[in-house]
Amino acid sequence: MRFIVRLYRCFVISIVLLIFGVSYLGCKQNVPVNPEATSQNRGNSIGNLLNGGFVAQDQDWIYYASINPQGLYKVPINGKKKQKVCDDIGSSINVLSDWIYYSNATDNSTIYKVKTDGSERQKLYDEPFSSYLNIAGDWLYFMNENKFAMLFRIRTDGSEYEAVVEY
After folding, report:
1. Could you tell me if residue 2 is inside a domain?
2. Which 3 state secondary structure label does DSSP give 9?
3. What is the predicted pLDDT for the residue at 22?
């Protein structure tokens, strides 16, 4: 049974990569298939997210998760003076506009968002073991390991939750 679940998980991850790869790169140079999936409105790179997504970057800051000392931190691109954003340990970190979206390891890998200054922290999705978060436009795509790694999406404001691929 574990083999089948792992095989299915690999299949779904491959489909997700294909969808995001095509929508991000497009069929022609500089013409994305999905206009919502441009580099300006994506929270992180696919390669980084597949490696856990413990680091993300915007124009001025690098955001990262730390176990010791525990928390989600940001440091300016120049590397001077890190700042703690919140006490959570995040994975699948995505940064878009003034928000950080992440899977919160300190709360059973449920989905949270917090302003880049540490304010307005809120839970977006309460189901444990949500991972592989990826933003395209104003949608947050993710997988949930409790639900056989099905692909879901939710608006970045926490509304309109739905399954994209069902098992």
Report:
1. no
2. helix
3. 42
